[in-house]
Amino acid sequence: MTSTNLKITLDGSAGSAAPYEQLRAQIADRARSGKLPAGFKLPTVRGLAEELGLAVNTVAKAYRALEADGVIETRGRNGTFVAAAEGASREAASAAQAYAERAHRLGLTQAEAVVAATEALRARYAAR
After folding, report:
1. Which of 8, 66, 81, 126 is the most exposed place for a label (fewest CB within 10 A)?
2. What confidence tens digit (pLDDT) does each residue in 45-56 have?
3. In a 10 Å sphere around its CB, with 0-12 CB exposed, 13-18 middle and 19+ buried, how is residue 80 labelled?
């Protein structure tokens, strides 16, 4: 299944990630790389679901996750758009600060905290 406007391709084979996760990851990657520029208007949930042959709830779940991550923003009846990169950067900085505080409370050294974060990132990105 492929979306012509967004160039989204979903892998339906066994062992591949869930469709909503594939959709979420591809939109996030394209937004962060600039292939989908800030302000790019995304298709409606219903329209993209129809185009990809997915359930409306599947696309809505991906859009909700992207919005929670600061990748996209919904502007009411005007539609859903790729958010400015600063939003994602702010969100990442906030998450990093929260992690640093938690690691400190747990008594980890800076080196131990960096190792734990690096391993978590490596595992997460390997899962793509």
Report:
1. 126
2. 999 999 999 999
3. buried
Are 103 and 116 in a shared domain?
A: yes
- On whether both 14 and 28 belong to a single domain, the answer is yes
71 and 96 share a domain?
no
Contact 36, 24 (CB under 8 A): no
pTM given for the model: 0.67
Q: Give the C-alpha distances (Å, rounded to integers) separating 6 from 11, 34, 114.
A: 15, 12, 35
* Same-domain status, 91 and 69: no
Tell me if 27 sits within 8 A of 62, measured CB to CB: yes
Residue 18 DSSP class: P
Give 5-33 pLDDT, tens digit per residue: 688 999 888 788 899 999 999 999 998 88
Q: Do residue 70 and residue 31 come from a single domain?
A: yes
